Recover the amino acids of this structure.
């Protein structure tokens, strides 16, 4: 494999260990003397705890320790914090009820943790937990967002009236209302954005160790951002000094957002590892994942779009109620606000937008960021409205979009964001060609002859990745920075270790980042190792979420490389007896301009570590640089998705016969990896549209879809082979011109699928997931009406 | 109470005394330290724990260790050739980017090998149907399907 590496589909470095069973996931790590934790969880959605009797459990074989909320209170352990403060329209801060690590007198959702049992073996921990008697006084529960504010509904937290965390708004309401009053057509839709359960295939896991000798902790945890995990856990919950806690997120088996957050389990066992003075391992069973991993989406929305008679958008008005679950998860408050309403301009020049969001607590698992986080919900609102508007206005779906596309950049939206670049017409044209949109009507007719209903649906989405800059985010309520850190360390013999605060849990950073480093330093890719996921080795980092890694983490590495090259020029100038200003660097070689004098970067690195002929009076030895990069703006990937479905007229079963995605991610480092990210996102988006519906029993608050038997995960025969391509407009404000690709599929796909199904059926709307039953009912209701 | 179990794992004879509740997946991971066999669910649905028992693909979390007494078990660690050479199916997964986080991958590969033994020239539809018992959340299956078809061709060569 030869340079330039950027742009090549290089096979992944990390694969060797994964295909041979040599990966090291958290549950694969075992240490001498390790014990096992099992969490006793609430079987009820809402109940008071009158008492807990664990006398028998304490005496059970192998038990090392049992702890409840009372023990944590006595030890002055705090609750889990929320990382984003949202301010309500009345100027009041959002309600932040306590989020205890172990229940304090009350449980608020099925799965809420009540006690932890630590024993010599997992079997013993489970056996002992069965002996614990909890005296519950059951309370009525509320699970649906739409019900949470109704009079007489039970309060999830006694001190949070109307179960309302906040009511937040963005946009000029009076301007929007005025535009609606003068519009020639208004399209209105009311729908739910269905609750999803993330289901990374590796369940969450943690292994906590305490060392009395140096009063230090080591925590292995399946997590997407180990430095953030450490910061939140030490500073806000356990009151531990940060330098005494090392957090390692080794190989992590998928995250999709659900492993961003600080959870109770790893925090409790970190605390308890000192109490029992033994290492403690906890690994979630899948049944626990269903009732403890933060869920995603769950919005109830009324959305309206005002147009003039040519179909030009005049204004958009959106009212959303967002279900936050029983407690505020780490970034829960920002998802239905900052990451949702600011995206409502989409790819269009809609001049006035108003969005009001009411966030409510219910007796369900906390809801937080899940692949796309707010942006899929926004795209669903926009693209369902636009497609419905096209049908009502008798315009082709592509035509109404083209009439409203933003074509001039930079473009300031009415909802805070400023898009730097894009070419929405180009991705739409390319997608229509790849999908053979022109031939669709003929295919529809052929299908009809076979008794099948064909539909075509579009979704042209915008995404905002690499949330930034920190100071603006701070003014909007963020309680953390949004930069990334990278360290580039030459070794004396010329190989390089790169330490990144980004975290790879499937994204292939060990390959992609190495491609960037190899090109920028002009050295063979084999000489580079990318290190991530360890607070003990990496300077700092905000981790991986929101498709930020290459745009923010990659840019930080490039910034560190720039420092390396600057220093290298000075060293080379000394070695070559020239002025640093006359040194050029290209393809790994420092040269004196206008001469044949040169030194390779490996020679320069060696000279820096063995500084015998070295400007010690002016330069420090060594070649090792760290950079922090705080981006000036988001990046704005965008694209066009086209879905073609065929529905069985007898059963309502929907088959996706073709799915096309043409995306603009800016410059692409590794096309193979980018395509893979799109495929995965599409499957999750299709899963949301067709299969995945988290269901709670409204009365008991029990999670009905609590296993893979009941929650329909997309399987190989549920999705087609995808047609994907990219178009490039380079990001204008980062060193690589990259935008991010991790979430695009999940953002664009749901609207494309539902637009296709409603097209096939000739109905205005159908609820997600559009199961065969729902489609069949829609067909039959419609045909009855027609009679 | 423990019970003795004897079996062959990746060609080596193994004898252990275990709690009768021990699943094959637990025996492999916790007693034999073969951590390439992963546990992704508790209802036999995800397939991450798939191994071969006497040549058949079996979900190791769905069978007690005691049930495989006397059997020959092969795990992901045991399918490569001498000197770390990859099995053709492993090579195909790497070549076609049939994995991302890697957690489902050992089970996918073990199932895919049996799939090819049953269907030496599998169509895309056959591969998708036969992978019904293995969940992947990362890849959207697109490249897994490509990898399995390519792996089938590789296994002939």
């Amino acid at each position: 494999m030869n340079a330039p590496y950027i742009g090549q589909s290089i096979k992944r470095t990390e694969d060797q260990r994964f295909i041979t069973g040599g990966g090291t996931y958290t549950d694969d790590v075992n240490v001498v003397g390790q014990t096992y934790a099992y969490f006793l969880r609430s079987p009820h959605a809402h109940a008071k705890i009158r008492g807990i009797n664990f006398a028998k459990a304490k005496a059970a074989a192998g038990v090392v320790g049992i702890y409840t909320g009372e023990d944590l209170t006595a030890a002055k352990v705090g609750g889990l914090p929320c990382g984003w403060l949202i301010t309500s329209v009345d100027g009041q801060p959002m309600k932040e009820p306590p989020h205890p690590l172990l229940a304090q007198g009350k449980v608020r959702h099925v799965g809420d943790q009540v006690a932890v049992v630590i024993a010599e073996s997992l079997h013993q921990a489970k056996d002992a937990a069965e002996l614990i008697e909890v005296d519950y006084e059951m309370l009525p529960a509320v699970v649906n967002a739409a019900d949470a504010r109704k009079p007489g509904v039970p309060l999830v937290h006694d001190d949070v009236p109307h179960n309302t965390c906040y009511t937040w708004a963005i946009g000029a309401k009076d301007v929007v209302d005025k535009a609606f009053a003068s519009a020639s057509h208004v399209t209105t839709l009311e729908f739910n954005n269905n609750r999803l359960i993330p289901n990374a295939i590796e369940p969450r896991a943690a292994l906590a160790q305490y060392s009395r000798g140096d009063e230090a902790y080591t925590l292995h945890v399946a997590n997407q951002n180990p430095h953030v995990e450490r910061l939140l856990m030490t500073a806000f919950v356990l009151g531990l000094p940060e330098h005494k806690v090392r957090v390692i997120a080794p190989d992590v088996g998928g995250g999709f957002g659900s492993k961003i957050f600080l959870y109770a389990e790893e925090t409790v066992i970190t605390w308890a590892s000192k109490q029992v003075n033994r290492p403690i391992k906890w690994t979630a069973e899948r049944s626990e994942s269903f009732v403890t991993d933060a869920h995603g989406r769950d919005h109830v929305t009324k959305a309206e779009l005002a147009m003039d008679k040519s179909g030009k958008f005049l204004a958009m008005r959106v009212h959303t109620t967002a279900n936050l679950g029983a407690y505020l998860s780490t970034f829960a408050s920002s998802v239905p606000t900052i990451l949702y309403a600011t995206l409502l301009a989409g790819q269009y020049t809609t001049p006035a937008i108003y969005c009001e969001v009411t966030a409510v607590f219910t007796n369900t698992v906390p809801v937080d960021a899940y692949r796309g986080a707010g942006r899929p919900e926004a795209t669903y609102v926009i693209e369902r409205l636009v497609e419905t508007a096209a049908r009502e206005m008798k315009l082709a779906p592509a035509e109404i979009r083209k009439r409203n596309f933003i074509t001039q950049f930079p473009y300031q939206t009415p909802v805070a964001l400023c898009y730097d670049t894009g070419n929405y017409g180009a991705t739409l044209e390319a997608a229509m060609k790849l999908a053979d949109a022109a031939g669709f009507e003929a295919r529809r007719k052929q299908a009809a002859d076979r008794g099948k209903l064909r539909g075509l649906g579009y979704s042209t989405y915008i995404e905002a990745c690499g949330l930034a800059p920190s100071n603006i985010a701070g003014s909007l309520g963020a309680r953390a920075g949004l930069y990334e850190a990278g360290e580039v360390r030459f070794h004396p013999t010329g190989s390089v270790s790169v330490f990144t605060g980004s975290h790879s849990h499937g994204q292939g950073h060990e390959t992609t980042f190495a491609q960037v480093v190899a090109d920028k330093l002009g050295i063979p890719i084999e000489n580079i190792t990318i290190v991530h996921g360890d607070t003990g080795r990496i300077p700092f980092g905000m981790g991986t979420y929101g498709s930020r890694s290459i745009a923010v983490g990659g840019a930080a590495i490039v910034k560190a490389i720039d420092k390396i090259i600057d220093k290298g020029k000075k060293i080379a100038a000394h070695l070559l007896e020239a002025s640093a200003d006359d040194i050029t660097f290209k393809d790994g070689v420092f040269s004196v301009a206008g001469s044949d004098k040169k030194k390779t970067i490996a020679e320069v690195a060696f000279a820096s570590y063995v500084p015998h002929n070295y400007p010690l009076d002016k330069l420090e030895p060594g070649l090792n640089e760290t950079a922090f990069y705080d981006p000036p703006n988001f990046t704005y990937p965008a694209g066009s998705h086209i879905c073609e479905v065929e529905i069985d007229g007898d059963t309502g079963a929907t088959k996706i016969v073709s799915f096309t995605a043409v995306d603009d991610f800016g410059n692409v480092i590794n096309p193979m990896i980018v395509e893979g990210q799109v495929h995965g996102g599409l499957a999750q988006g299709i899963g949301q549209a067709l299969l995945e519906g988290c269901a709670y029993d409204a009365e008991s608050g029990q999670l009905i879809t609590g296993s893979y038997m009941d929650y329909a995960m997309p399987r190989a025969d549920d999705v087609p082979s995808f047609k994907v391509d990219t178009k490039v407009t380079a990001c204008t404000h980062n060193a690589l011109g990259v935008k991010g690709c991790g979430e695009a599929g999940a953002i664009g796909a749901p609207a494309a699928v539902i637009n296709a199904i409603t097209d096939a059926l000739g109905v205005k709307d159908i609820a997600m997931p559009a199961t065969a039953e729902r489609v069949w009912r829609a067909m039959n209701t419609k045909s009855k009406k027609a009679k | 109470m423990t019970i003795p179990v004897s079996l062959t794992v990746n060609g080596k004879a193994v004898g252990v005394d275990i709690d009768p509740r021990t699943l094959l997946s637990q025996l492999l991971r916790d007693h034999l330290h073969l951590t390439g066999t992963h546990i992704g669910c508790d209802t036999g649905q995800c397939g991450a724990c798939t191994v071969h028992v006497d040549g058949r693909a079996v979900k190791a979390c769905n069978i007690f260790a005691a049930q495989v007494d006397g059997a020959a078990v092969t795990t992901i660690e045991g399918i490569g050739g001498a000197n770390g050479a990859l099995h053709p199916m492993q090579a195909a997964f790497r070549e076609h980017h049939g994995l991302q986080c890697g957690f489902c991958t050992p089970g996918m590969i073990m199932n895919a090998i049996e799939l090819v033994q049953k269907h030496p020239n599998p169509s895309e539809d056959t591969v998708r149907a036969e992978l019904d018992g293995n969940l992947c959340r990362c890849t959207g299956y697109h490249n897994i399907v490509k990898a399995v078809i390519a792996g089938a061709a590789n296994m002939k060569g």
Summary: The two ends of chain A are 67 Å apart (CA to CA). The CA atoms of residues 234 and 441 of chain A lie 61 Å apart.
